[in-house]
Here is the input.
Amino acid sequence: MINQHAPAAIMFRDLLVTSAATNRTSIVHFTNDNEQGYQFTAATRRDYWLHWDTDARVDPDFYRCVRA
Here is the structure.
């Protein structure tokens, strides 16, 4: 789960999770029901790129990643 992210430009945007190994991207939708964030599963011991679906590149100021 990823939540508590900023700036406001990425707040309600879809999260794009790209596997570095396969270069495949999954779209994760924002949800208000899950602590205002994103919930997804990913394989362990792999590298991923996280970016938001915006017209221009916007880097997050911060975000919280919770592993269950």
About this structure: Residues 2-65 form one domain. The longest strand covers residues 2-6. The chain has one domain: 2-65.
